[in-house]
Write a structure and sequence with these properties.
Chain B: It is a multi-pass membrane protein. Chain B: Belongs to the binding-protein-dependent transport system permease family. Chain B: Keywords: Cell membrane, Membrane, Sugar transport, Transmembrane, Transmembrane helix, Transport. Chain B: Its main location: membrane. The complex is a heterodimer of chains A (317) and B (276). Chain A has 16 helices and no strands. Chain A is globular, with a radius of gyration of 27 Å. Chain B is globular and about 75 Å long. With 276 residues, chain B is mainly alpha-helical. Chain B contains 14 helices and no strands. The chains are: A mainly alpha (317), B mainly alpha (276). Chains A and B meet through helix 3, helix 6, helix 7, helix 8 and helix 9 of A and helix 1, helix 4, helix 5, helix 6 and helix 7 of B.
Chain lengths: 317, 276
Amino acid sequence: MADTTREAARPVPPAAPAGPKRAAPAPRGPRLSRRLTPWLFLVAPLALLLTFTYAPIANMIAYSFTDWDGVSPELSYTGTGNYTELLTRSELFEVFLVSGYYLVASVVQIVLALYFATVLSFDVRFRHFFKGVLFFPYLINGVAIGFVFLYFFQDGGTLDSVLGLFGADTDHAWLGTPFSANTSLAGVSVWRYLGLNFVLFLGAIQSIPGELYEAAEIDGASRWHQFRHIIAPGIKPVLSLSVILSVSGSLSVFEIPYIMTGGATGTETFVIQTVKLAFQFNKTGLASAAAVVLLLIVLAVTWVQRRIVPDEKVDLV
Amino acid sequence: MTRRTLARTLVYLSLALATLVVLLPLAVVLLTSLKSPQEMADGSGALALPDDPLNLDNYVTAFRDGEMLSAFGNTAVVLIAAVGGTILIGSMTAYAIDRFHFRFRKLVVAAFLLAALVPGVTTQVATFQIVNSFGLFDSLWAPIALYMGTDIVSIYIFLQFIRSIPVSLDEAARLDGANAFTVYRKVILPLLKPAIATVVIVKGINVYNDFYIPFLYMPSEDLGVISTSLFRFKGPFGAHWETISAGAILVILPTLVVFLFLQRFIYNGFMRGATK
């Protein structure tokens, strides 16, 4: 509707006749091409967006009402059968309990990241070294992390050896029971992702003007008060972004448990289960229904979060 | 005064503890990678130092039997194509959205925004069918297309930078007779260099470390990227921790080198990527 030619002309409609050059209608060719220009830039991005994001969502919703196995040309509509199966077969829903471990872990992670970001934004010796050490795990390959920690929790591995130094009992199968295995895996997840939260918080804290601290210092505010009244409000947007990332992250855990335990001893997460349903047991229909449920939960969480903490930074346009 | 000293001591103590927690698991794996199978068998424990700190036999085994050379090659191909494509796609999208007023513009923006809320792992079952129907399954093209097509973060980064480029520069170029493509190529792209650096870092690290997509879409052994090749170690090398450790260190080492050289840019890249 508003191509650039018309947009330029719009503010001066009554004066238009006065400017004979501008009043002359633009030739049809260039005008059409102008209108097309933005679309030429958007063809490839939109094609990719539709093909790899929207088409899968649409297909997934369609599959979720069928009994399709993912390969055969035949499929029949089963109505809401897959959803009832999901809700009634409790073992399919139990995987969400596993997410609870990761949810608790992300609370620990955010608190630790906040603490280290606050401490390291003030003058501390070897600041850059500590920053690097805390952030580096985030950059490491997930499979390598999986192997490092498989050895860490191994019988007679790193953890047992360290505990042995303190004379503690060194015979503990860390990945042997569901509780201990999930706690260990969630701990690995904190180890891995702490650095990202830390760097985000650090960036937000550094963007708070320094005079605020000076003024607070003069007023005799303690470090805690500075944190409470200057830092915490200053980083609220990043904090709420981190919360939402951790909720959706906790629901979609895959790599670490898949690499380390393959989902054994009660460590199967929702995504591991979905991947197994779809690609090992050929239950594409059921897997799709599961994925739709996960997607709805994530969207609901995002929506709730946006309602509670309205984010002033979403003005993309 | 003493309270301050105590607080400082506690702060340093916590930092030292965190350093230990981060570095110890990695250091032990490094130690293990230098041990011989005999040393592993004699049960001296994970913390024991290797007899010969220059024993690189395990690295040779890992590199050769893990087909690490081809894995690094495949990773490099995917990395370059995906990062290059992301830069092109992201900057074009941002340019079109920020510099033009056209019908359905709001709808397009909303479509990209909404896509950012959909976690990629949730739609993988259906994405798989689409990739398969294009005949891209089990080829290097599958991850390249997926990395390019799903990246919203880079669009945000480019959009933010394009907004800071004054429109008067475009207009000046237009007056000199440049068309939209020339403006994009000659004016916008060169000025986007800092944004491109950010995207290269953030995207590059994600692609280098990703496991999920190559694992699902490229099951062939000769299409292994470093994640999947390393993952395959678990089978044949079962309990040979000295070889597995060497493989893990081989994969971590390039990241460490890049990190040490580009530290500052990497921090900035991630801060920019997240704060939109």
